[in-house]
Amino acid sequence: MEQLTKEQFIKDFKAQLHTDYLVDNNEATAEEHFRTLGKLIKRYVMSDWLRRRDEIVKEQKKTAYYFSIEFLPGKMLQTNLLNLGIYDLVTEALADINVDLTVLVEAERDMALGNGGLGRLASCFMDSLPTIGAPGFGNGIRYKYGLFKQRIVNGYQVELPDAWLPSEGSVWETKKPHSAVDVKIYGSVYLAPQEDGALKPIYENVKTLHAVPYDVIQIGFNNGVVNNLRLWDVELPEKYELDYQTLADRRRVEDITSFLYPDDSSRDGQAMRLIQEYFMVSAGLQTIVASYAKMQLPMAKIHEKVAVHINDTHPAMAVPELMRILMDDYGVKWDDAWATTTQVMSYTNHTVLSEALEKWDTGLFKEIVPRIHQIIGEIDRKFVKEWAGKVDTGIIDRTRIVQNNQIHMANLAIIGGHSVNGVAKLHTELLIEDVLKEFYVLFPEKFNNKTNGIAQRRWSQIANPGMSALLDDLIGKGWRSNIHELSELEELLTRSDVQTSFYQVKQANKQKLADYVKKTLDIDLPIDAIFDVQVKRLHAYKRQLLNVMHIIKLYQDLKDDPGLEMTPRVFIFGAKAAPGYHFAKSVIKIINELANLINYDTSLNDKLKVVFLENYNVSLAELIVPAADVSEQISTAGKEASGTSNMKFMMNGALTLATLDGANIEIKDAVGEDNIVIFGMDKDAVYAHYDKHDYNSRAIYDSDPTIKRVVDAFIDGTIPNTHYEGHEIWDALISYNDEYFLLEDFTDYAEKQAYISELYQDKPIWQAKVIKNIANSGRFSSDDTIEGYAKDIWGII
Ligand code: CR1
């Protein structure tokens, strides 16, 4: 953008307010101020945005498209101001006219088009791609309702729709009706032989959806690059309106882009999800191929200009859909189409949990996407033929796409692409050795690792201005554009004035969080206590319950001996449970009731507090992460693919209490064993139990009185109002043999927690470790991660 002055900005701001709302600055609401500023930002970047679009076509730049069913950007105002380089100027200019930027920040709604780590990673990548100057665009769905809004009522999670999208649309998007495309679903298709011997698909009784793109600006950091996140919305095509005569028909179409992950327990719900996936994939690919066609290069070489990334399995239909477009719309022959498709496509796996490896009933495919069903059948047939006789038939049976009338989406993504990556070293190893080992036999060259990263600007400069200012003082401002300069802190670890400054920043951040807790929950948090935080989706493998068991132990210890010397602790949780996930919801109830029990027990003398913050989302994370002293990363080893909050906490000076899982291992390698607290079984120990079937939680329970007492607290009335949930949990731990090995890891966990309490008392040692963590956090920048993708996988830089 052009050089901006304060005066010019104020003039623009006032004029925009007049144009859009017919109000003067002093009359406008926070919402109007926010939207006005958003519009101005968009106006300021418009020339960069257009230039980007044009140069890609003119210079025929190879471009990557990141297909993802989830994007979780949170709020964009501060990021956009920061990346544009006008954060300070705008803050001051607004202050001059009595407008407080923080109030505008509050007025923006979180854009929560995702569940958790996977969607947030996609958004960190959207920030990093323009920042490293790479032509990489997002492709997803413009849901009207994002992830549900969580309220806690009587300790239970209640899910409310999150209508994040204002009726005027998001201020960051631009609707582009002229780029709309039609997507066909349902009906039937047969192949009619043509004179030249080719087969032409003839469709009958199809339903046509009108896909309209909304382009959301993605601004690079201080470099004039603006990329695009394209979100698709559905509209009823006027031309085909006779297909949708009743209101119910119309609603059903509108629903396609209404919700993120519609409930798929019914066949109808499954159909809706499948349509969503196809809708986004088809609309995205049709436009991508059309813009490639404008370059007038051979269709069979599209991989030289286009890379498509399949983020988790949801967009895996990109493989057959690109085949369809190339063959049916552009007349490319199968072999050529296949050769180029496999070079266009690449896939990231985000979890070893088998429930997340999507499988679809072939009947549903046949009904909803009949042509795709045909093409998948053919890909599968050719795959089997190609490998027959070369490898064991068992391997073919287990790696083929269609098995027992089910379509295996991960298999489709792996077979149909040239790259498969995991998201942390251990995770990639597990894919190779275990989860996808038979694919590794077939395609060893496809496998690679790309450890996750975070958009450090949001998680330091925006979320933690106090720490950022301190860093500026200590090592200069260079770290703001080159995060690796944080390593200069290594020289300062033991300087007591530096330690004190970091401590003061942390205490101020803790106070800010404490104020929020006071306001929302009316609980007083002592900020001299250790703030011990576990925020992430609620899942059995993430073991929030292990954390709960430890809190119960501390509670019991304090009840036994109220005079017990103990470093005060505040345990903070934030977690949403999937609406249908019963066990996870029971854990939420337990945490809330335990919190009630503890927080109002005056005999504990404020040594223990427990807080469950409702509706954990990106914005709340920005408040919580900078206030943490301890970061809980305690999943069963081998289960957490990477984790990314672990990186955010580390960057903000929390010490990690962790199992050797996911990226925790790489954090340990970065800071050294002395600067992280590791406990519990490693992946080999976990796998040894799987192999030998020798885990016996009841034996541990019977032989360890401390554990027995903690576990019994779930059913002996210790925690009020949890009769039902307590029994469910007790059963999971004892009757069902504790699937995630909480009991085996408990003792070590509790010991390491006690060690942390002791350590915290020694401020110089604690602070040195804190600074060591910040100093080494630069390697977890998503700028570096995305550079790996851009170079090794997509070949776009
Ligand atoms: C993993 O559980 C990882 C993110 C991003 C999640 C988490 O460990 O950090 O992906 N996986 O890679 C997921 O959401 C559906 O799978």
From TrEMBL:
Catalytic activity: [(1->4)-alpha-D-glucosyl](n) + phosphate = [(1->4)-alpha-D-glucosyl](n-1) + alpha-D-glucose 1-phosphate
Enzyme Commission no: 2.4.1.1
UniProt keywords, alphabetically: Carbohydrate metabolism, Glycosyltransferase, Pyridoxal phosphate, Transferase
Domain of life: Bacteria
Family matches, as InterPro entries: Glycg_phsphrylas, Glyco_trans_35, Pyridoxal_P_attach_site
Cofactor: pyridoxal 5'-phosphate
Family of this protein: Belongs to the glycogen phosphorylase family.
NCBIfam families per UniProt: P_ylase
Protein role: Phosphorylase is an important allosteric enzyme in carbohydrate metabolism. Enzymes from different sources differ in their regulatory mechanisms and in their natural substrates. However, all known phosphorylases share catalytic and structural properties. Allosteric enzyme that catalyzes the rate-limiting step in glycogen catabolism, the phosphorolytic cleavage of glycogen to produce glucose-1-phosphate, and plays a central role in maintaining cellular and organismal glucose homeostasis.
PANTHER family, A to Z: GLYCOGEN PHOSPHORYLASE, GLYCOGEN PHOSPHORYLASE, LIVER FORM
Name of this protein: Alpha-1,4 glucan phosphorylase
Source organism per UniProt: Pseudolactococcus carnosus
